[in-house]
Amino acid sequence: MIPAVMPTYARYDLAFDHGEGAYLWDTEGRRYLDFGAGIAVAAIGHCHPHLVDAIREQAGKLMHTSNLYHIPGQEALAERLVANTFADAVFFNNSGNEAVELGVKMMRRYHWANGHPERYRVITVSGAFHGRSLAMLSAGKQEKHLTGFGPEVDGFDQVAFDNLNELKAAIGPETAGILVEPVQGEGGIRPMSKEYLQSLRKIADEFGLLLMFDEVQSGVGRTGKLYAYEWAGIAPDILASAKGIGGGFPLGATLATEKVADAMTAGSHGSTYGGNPLAMAAGNAVLDVILAPGFLEGVQKIAGTFMAGLEDIASKHPSVFEIARGTGLMLGLKCADGVTNGDVVKKLMENGLLSVPAGDNVVRFVPPLVITADDVTEALSIIEKTATDFEGGA
């Protein structure tokens, strides 16, 4: 008989009872160091007092109205994002998938509003993951996600990762824009070089295209900047944000420049829950922490320590790990031939460290941004032990 919860997840035999900072405790009372953070969601750690207080206070006043009315917290969060990014306007939704899909809608709407309704196609790159809706599965074009859900939604053309010649060749009279993740998460912790991102900006400008960055995973301080695009010294026209922006509360946001946002008139898009008072209390509380003086510099510093440790482990255990890669606190270890990332994730879990599998046989580490030097030392010790276990045939 099918379980009451639809069996779409291959869940680990583990359930958690409570958390604090970078730690989780399971229902049996065992403590784990959490370097998965709910897949890069718990940006300021579990049960951060400021976030908990903000949600509790707002829940006691008003959780939901609708976007038929002004929502002061929404206006405040939008103004803060505009002040700290390239964007001129923000739309709030509930998830990364919604944030990205709206961005694609905005690309089409922009060209329609400017007299080119034929420009609707979007170029993506191999290894991409943009969400689970039919359209976003078609944007990512990963067979493992598309199987059984065909036919694909038309409008997406994919080119090889880091291949500008192929990308330029794919541009045609129907092309509306380019959509990439500055750091691929599900694709295996693959950062795009700043030169590549700068070239995308030039190509978009040359051909009259819109450039969109999917920063659902790489955003909100994950790379040591508020958003990863800042490292390249350029700006997109549209950006999708989610995961860490709510610190665990479901929240997404689509940021855009004025020229793009101007095409989104009343009735062109909407969301029942998006940007409701409770979500906005969470988002503003997270930004209070992320934007505090010195916070992002601290992320950069601790990330450098963690990366150096991962590189050392990879060099000492080449039969287990090929290479460490990533940026900020979005890091990974690519497993060597004969070693499966899923097995490593399970062994790390047995040893007390939570991580997340990713594409290209990578073990992904996306811990809370509030981790300490002691947390990193503990994590590296567990990873080292796990590598030794694999070398011993465990």
Rg on CA atoms, Å: 21 Å
Low-confidence stretches: none
Distance from first to last alpha carbon: 35 Å
Question: What would you call the structural class?
Answer: alpha/beta
How many domains? The number is 2
Tally of DSSP helical segments? 13
- Across the major sheet, the strand order is 4-12-11-10-7-5-6
Query: Can you tell me the CATH topology of the largest domain?
Result: Aspartate Aminotransferase, domain 2
**How would the global form be characterised?**
globular
Q: Write the element-wise H/E pattern from the N-terminal end onward.
A: EEEHHHEHEHHEHEEEHEEEHHHEEHEEEH
Write structural notes for this entry.
The protein contains 13 helices and 17 strands. With 394 residues, it is an alpha/beta fold. The protein has two domains: 16-34 and 293-391, Aspartate Aminotransferase, domain 1, CATH 3.90.1150; 50-290, Aspartate Aminotransferase, domain 2, CATH 3.40.640.10. Strand 16 and strand 17 form a beta hairpin. Helix 2 packs antiparallel against helix 10. The protein is globular. 49% of the residues are buried. The mean pLDDT is 97.
